[in-house]
Fold Spermidine/putrescine ABC transporter membrane protein.
Amino acid sequence: MPGLRTVNFRRVVILLTLGWLGIFVLLPHLLVVLTSILTPDADHLAVWPLTLDAYKRVFEPIYAEVFWHSITLSLTTTIICLLIGYPFAYYVARLKPVWRALLLFLMIIPFWTNSLIRTYAIKALLGKKGLFNEIIMGLGLSDAPLQLLYSDFAVIFGLVYILFPFMVLPLISSFDKLDNSLLEAGHDLGANAFMRFWHIVLPLTMPGVVAGCLIVFLPAMGMFYVADLLGGAKSLLLGNVIKNQFLVVRDWPFGSAFSVILIVLMALMLWIYFLSNRYVQRQGGLDDENL
């Protein structure tokens, strides 16, 4: 029976998907939450009884500074990616298919190389004898090499380089859905270029903006190897704190508590993304019924 086979196949796929999500997504997260409320132990890493001491330590002033510094670096990275990526995505979305595919291919090529190796390449570029200092001194802008490595600038540079494609791809998708007839209608009604951008283009591409910011901001807070290699000891991200708690200090409950905070932050941003999508549809943007 064709119908019976279709139903059975569908059930099998759904069960396999739910099983995969349950084992590899839900269960690890539940273990992290459980570990965050256990008591640290030198021999067994985490033991009973349950306690909220790890969460109390998360909000201590020294970790609050790391948290704020991490948010500042990640937010700066996100803003730079957005300012560069928005016009870039607009330009790419309006190219001919051949040129568009070529640009996307060139943008994705670096992903064929491990991001850790690319970070080492950035370290070589920003060093005192690197390409950047050679250009600066060659142009006569400085007599001595600048200290670019082991600074917040180096960390932001590395994060922008690695995460830039994650901002561009959702934006290109949003620009693809942009209805040009709305821009033509705005022009016919007397709206100038800025008004058409502010009242038509920006609201309709807001889901791509929010999605890109989410995909860039959250990973930026956890890329500990970028801060380790390019920022030195002064530029810590939340990922560095979590890594150190698990691998160096061996305080798994405290590292898990930081991880839970990141998960909550991610859930909050997904909620903002959901609200932005609903706002666009209410404004008559992507939903054809509202046009």
